[in-house]
UniProtKB/TrEMBL annotation:
Reaction it catalyzes: 5-amino-6-(5-phospho-D-ribitylamino)uracil + NADP(+) = 5-amino-6-(5-phospho-D-ribosylamino)uracil + NADPH + H(+); 2,5-diamino-6-hydroxy-4-(5-phosphoribosylamino)-pyrimidine + H2O + H(+) = 5-amino-6-(5-phospho-D-ribosylamino)uracil + NH4(+)
Taxonomic source organism: Nostoc punctiforme FACHB-252
Function according to Swiss-Prot or TrEMBL: Converts 2,5-diamino-6-(ribosylamino)-4(3h)-pyrimidinone 5'-phosphate into 5-amino-6-(ribosylamino)-2,4(1h,3h)-pyrimidinedione 5'-phosphate.
PROSITE patterns linked: CYT_DCMP_DEAMINASES_1 (PS00903), CYT_DCMP_DEAMINASES_2 (PS51747)
Domain of life the protein comes from: Bacteria
Keyword Hydrolase annotated: yes
Keywords associated with the record: Hydrolase, Metal-binding, Multifunctional enzyme, NADP, Oxidoreductase, Riboflavin biosynthesis, Zinc
Protein name per Swiss-Prot or TrEMBL: Riboflavin biosynthesis protein RibD
EC number: 1.1.1.193, 3.5.4.26
Family of this protein: In the N-terminal section; belongs to the cytidine and deoxycytidylate deaminase family.
InterPro entries, alphabetized: APOBEC/CMP_deaminase_Zn-bd, CMP_dCMP_dom, Cytidine_deaminase-like, DHFR-like_dom_sf, Eubact_RibD, RibDG_C, Riboflavin_Biosynth_HTPR
CDD domains: Riboflavin_deaminase-reductase (cd01284)
The protein's annotated pathway: Cofactor biosynthesis; riboflavin biosynthesis; 5-amino-6-(D-ribitylamino)uracil from GTP: step 3/4; Cofactor biosynthesis; riboflavin biosynthesis; 5-amino-6-(D-ribitylamino)uracil from GTP: step 2/4
Domain CMP/dCMP-type deaminase, residue spans: 36-151
Length: 446
């Protein structure tokens, strides 16, 4: 099966549901099934799963709709991490359990078959008395991995697999790929002009994309566990990196991560310190700062000491001779990060700048890209993705794999999965070709 989304559906779910109501007419519309057939009910399950954005991680955000004789009798979505799964939420909402006899459950991901923080959903479904279960996507988690489907079939429940599989895959891409890659996934997000600039040469442009694109970006922010930016972006833009302009529900604020190899945050001016305190550091949201060990050890001004002593800031260091991206990935999987974040870290949204995105692309670490293209031309030479001329010798040395060097024969290949309009912008969402092929090879679509 080809991994490609229907129009109006994105990696954030139904696109029109991710932006405020006043902007919903500006985005590519999603045309739902009108006839009350299997597809209609699975689409309803997908819509329901969007209620769990940001809270289920690192579990998948699953939706479940239960139907009897063509009439919906219950629906539910996964509760916050450690809480009930979608199937149990839906079933327990029914006071008259006799209604479940012979019913059909529509579930966006294969029901789990193991004991974790909750009992297995397969057992809940079997005991409920349902006769049929329509599943969008198999679960690659080694603790499940087709066992849930097998157990349902063994108990005489009819199982249909693969309906709306691409959409279910996109919605739970963070969960699926972190299982397959055995690490947190990295997602690149950037807005660019038609001629490929993420900012003008003087950094005077505040926004390239429009309000609809920014609203969708904010929705994506809560879908990811953390936002990663470079120190230059923090010092220049003083960003909030918060979720605020998207559609409801706003369930959480992501952790912040700053890549600061030269320790620039530790030595910024008093003016910048004040701005950071009032905006970037104003909340108690967990923050991780990656820097070289020598800068953290040698810097002892009062500002640096206050950062080091802050309970919500965690400094993680690497040495100049380290291959630091490998070191950082190991850190992100570690117990120290798990404790700081409060649960396992599953996904990171990389919002720039262009140098940081270039390093991650060249290191083959961006597992998905959300790219917003605005129909403007500005010219110039700076602030472009994959431009080695924009990196210092030190920054180039930090990159593990080679650039294509301007040669088409060496170009990295990607698969376009979704393309949608947001106001006057186009949002393209694509994944590396090798990951697209791996998903098909593992046969989780059908």
């Amino acid at each position: 099966m080809s991994f490609r989304l229907t129009e109006g559906f994105s990696f954030g779910g139904v696109l029109s549901k991710t932006v405020p109501p006043e902007l919903s007419n500006e985005v590519t519309p999603w045309i739902p099934e009108k006839e009350r057939n299997d597809r209609y009910w699975m689409e309803q399950a997908l819509l329901t799963s969007m209620n769990s954005v940001g809270i289920a991680n690192p579990n998948p955000a699953v939706g479940c709709v239960i139907v009897r004789n063509g009439v919906e009798i219950a629906r539910g979505s996964t509760l916050a991490f450690g809480g009930k799964h979608a199937e149990r939420v839906a079933i327990e909402s029914i006071s008259d359990k006799s209604l479940l006899q012979g019913a059909c459950a529509y579930v966006t991901l294969e029901p789990c078959s193991h004991f974790g923080k909750q009992p297995p959903c397969t057992q809940t479904l079997i005991e409920s008395g349902i006769a049929r279960c329509v599943v969008a996507l198999a679960d690659p988690n080694p603790l499940v991995n087709w066992d849930g489907i097998r157990l349902l079939k063994d108990k005489g429940i009819e199982v249909c697999l693969g309906l709306c599989a691409s959409e279910a895959m996109a919605w739970n891409y963070n969960f699926i790929m972190s299982q397959l890659l055995n690490r947190p996934i990295f997602a690149g997000k950037w807005a660019q002009t038609l001629d490929g600039h993420l900012a003008d040469d003087e950094f005077t442009s505040k926004w390239i994309s429009g309000s609809s694109s920014r609203a969708y970006t904010h929705w994506l922010r809560q879908k990811y566990d953390a936002i990663l930016v470079g120190a230059g972006t923090v010092l220049r833009d003083i960003p909030e990196l918060s979720v605020r302009s998207c559609s409801q529900p706003i369930n959480r604020q992501p952790m912040k991560i700053v890549f600061d190899p030269k320790g620039r945050l530790l030595n910024c001016s008093e003016h910048i310190q004040k701005q950071l305190s009032e905006k970037f550091l104003a909340s108690s949201t967990p923050l991780i700062i990656f820097t070289q060990e020598k800068f953290l050890v040698s810097t002892h001004n009062s500002w640096a000491e206050s950062l080091k002593e802050s309970e919500h800031i965690l400094f993680l260091t690497f040495k100049e001779e380290d291959y630091f991206w490998e070191k950082i990935v190991d850190y992100l999987k570690s117990e120290v990060v798990k404790r700081h974040f409060g649960k396992p870290l599953q996904s990171i949204l990389v919002e720039g700048g262009s140098k940081l995105l270039t390093q991650l692309l060249a290191a083959n670490l961006l597992d998905i890209c959300h790219v917003f293209i605005a129909p403007i031309l500005i010219g110039g030479v700076a602030n472009r993705i994959m431009n080695p001329l924009s990196l210092s010798l030190e920054e180039t040395a930090f990159t593990s794999s080679k650039y294509a060097g301007g040669k088409l024969s060496l170009a990295s290949q990607y698969k376009l999965v979704a393309q949608n309009r947001l106001g006057n912008d186009i949002c393209m969402e694509f994944i590396p070709q090798y990951l697209a092929e791996e998903l098909v090879r593992r046969n989780i679509f059908q």
